Amino acid sequence: MTNTKPLIVITGASSGFGAEDAKLFNAAGYPMLLLGRRVEKIRELPLNFDNVMVAAVDVTDQTALAEAIHAAETKYGETDLLINNAGVMLLGNVQRQDPKEWQTMLDTNVMGVLNGTQIVLPAMVKRHHGTIINMSSIAGFKAFANHAAYVASKFGVHGLSETIRQEVSNYNVRISLVAPGAGETELLTHVTDAAALKDYEAWKETMGGLTMDPKYVAQTVKFIYDMPQEVNVREIDIAATRQDS
Ligand code: NDP
User: Looking at the record's lineage, which domain of life comes first (predicted)?
Assistant: First the structure.
């Protein structure tokens, strides 16, 4: 099959926002590289896999990430859109939380984004074309109790995104960021602190017990990408209407 559309790489495509991104861009006919550690979940997604490559990659391993991206580029051409979506949120009070959980969040949410960016950015700069969309969070510009290390990681994503945007804007490369509010994904399932989880669930009840459908975040990502290359929607803050914070 000949592809006229360019390659899209999505990290963390096995669930949540990344899986919804994959469905939307697949329906639009883009060749894709879908990454995650649980590849069986990616293979179960309702996609046309004709022009999809799937690889088991941990975004904290830059060598493995680069190998997977280069293999996809050999088949589909250079990456035109990287969605740095993979992330973890391990809620916890900083006085009690195991520092290993802070490390996991900083490694995945910050280093993972930098790792992917460094792999695709030089070629984008060289050809004066390309887009990187980073999944940050409302926790990337405001604080939430029991989110200290997560907030630190997402403030990091905001900071690095704006820095790199300034560095490459003159090369016609777009660095963009989506800052979602709470969404119905698997994000909370990895939290080990029962008290922090209870507080989160109580907060969720204040918005009727249901947070944002991840499909709207995917539509936002696609809207950003679909703008002409000379327009960069730099940042979007999107949340359920009933989310008050
Ligand atoms: P999910 O838990 O549903 O999805 C997270 C994805 O990240 C999974 O596909 C997971 O895949 C992947 N992932 C996690 N760690 C790694 C790793 N080390 N290497 C590769 N992939 C990894 O959560 P969401 O869809 O909600 O999260 C997506 C992004 O959105 C995250 O960056 C999150 O911080 C952000 N976000 C989420 C919000 C929410 O309320 N849901 C709100 C604001 C931002 P696998 O486990 O298979 O590796």
Answer: Bacteria
